[in-house]
Design a protein that fits this description.
The structure is a single chain. This protein is an alpha+beta fold. A hairpin with a 6-residue loop joins β4 and β5. The protein is globular, with a radius of gyration of 19 Å.
């Protein structure tokens, strides 16, 4: 039954994917109420940004011991892609790519690639990711680098480094965790949320580093965002804010911040969640938070964020917050009422120009 439910959620996610509306952080979000749906046959393919894949009509089938909805990570040799189960291969995904799947036919799985192509992949070319308590999402990747520090440190590489350390810290604490991205490649918001929906975690956190502060602050200017209609998401955001600020405050820096730094919400025109990663997660029943840990565009903070000990401090803080969320009833702190924002965030997180990692 759970496989059928998750398959339905993944289908809904794929049908509702938008090429531009619904970004993952302050520089990639939507003020619109409804995302425009793309055609089910217009896609991008591995190594090509303009190609067409015929829509498939295969039924969802369960193999022995293999659920009909889940997550695969491509193996050391990558994974061959076909337009139908057992068909001729037309491309490959490189090794270590995370994909969700919603159907199994024989030895093939129908997957949603990082650029939201619906295609088929041999099950033997990947390993199944088990159900986890926590899914972490390293924001940006590939040709969407996110914010860049004055010294050239990119948000995409920093986010990934912190998430890798956080997964390790959680596992050391006895908490199973997985990441939506394993290396430097682009992943759409739809694919990120589909991975989380398939793994059905208790919590989903999108990890970012910030830009465009309002001015200086006496301490770290960390920000966390929560799903406006979810008390659990609000508690999660408060715990992450509390732990990250405490973890970073031990390092000397000329800190900057927005004047409403803290754990907060942001609404779109319809009164729902502004940030696509939170809105789409809420639509499939996944508790989520978006965390802006520090300002990579601030020279003083960028210098800190290049250091392994500071990255480890961020990861340990995230892990502590997540363990507290899972194992305690602690309410979190730092809640604030955000000031109105009228400037839209930048584009990103959609399928336009997206090329799957070949």
């Amino acid at each position: 039954m759970r496989g059928r439910v998750v398959a339905g959620l993944l289908t809904a996610l794929m049908m509702g994917a938008s090429c531009s509306s619904g970004g993952g952080d302050k520089r990639a979000a939507s003020t619109t109420t409804t995302a425009s749906a793309e055609s089910s046959t217009t896609t991008t393919t591995a190594g090509s940004s303009t190609s067409t894949t015929p829509a498939t009509t295969a039924t969802t089938v369960e193999l022995a011991g293999t659920p009909a909805a889940g997550v695969l990570v491509t193996g050391p040799g990558g994974a061959a892609l076909a337009r139908e189960p057992g068909g001729a291969t037309y491309g490959r995904l490189r090794a270590g790519v995370v994909v969700s799947y919603d159907a199994v036919d024989g030895s093939w799985a129908r997957v949603l690639t990082p650029c939201e192509n619906r295609t088929w992949l041999r099950l033997s070319d990947g390993r199944a990711e088990p159900k986890v308590e926590v899914v972490l999402d390293p924001g940006h990747g590939g040709n969407e680098p996110g914010a860049t520090g004055p010294g050239g440190l990119t948000e995409k590489e920093l986010n990934l480094a912190v998430v890798e350390r956080t997964v390790a810290a959680l596992k050391a604490a006895g908490v199973d965790a997985a990441s939506t991205r394993t290396s430097d490649y682009r992943v759409t918001l739809g694919s990120r949320v589909a991975i989380a929906a398939a793994l059905r975690p208790r919590v989903f956190v999108s990890v970012h580093h910030n830009a465009e502060p309002d001015g200086p602050r006496d301490g770290p200017g960390s920000e966390t965002y929560y799903q406006i209609r979810s008390p659990d998401s609000k508690r999660l955001a408060g715990l992450i804010y509390e732990e990250v600020v405490e973890g970073l405050a031990v390092f000397p820096a000329q800190w900057v911040a927005d004047t409403d730094a803290g754990a907060k919400y942001r609404t779109n025109d319809a009164g729902g969640d502004y940030y696509g990663i939170l809105r789409r997660s809420a639509e499939v029943g996944v508790v989520a938070s978006l965390a802006e840990l520090a300002f990579v565009t601030n020279p003083s903070e960028e210098a800190l964020l290049r250091r392994d000990d500071v990255r480890q401090a961020e990861a340990d803080a995230l892990a502590r917050a997540l363990v507290r969320f899972l194992r305690t009833e602690d309410p979190g702190t730092g809640f604030t009422v955000p000031y109105p924002r009228v400037t839209p965030a930048g584009p990103g997180g959609g399928t336009t120009g997206c090329v799957d990692p070949a």
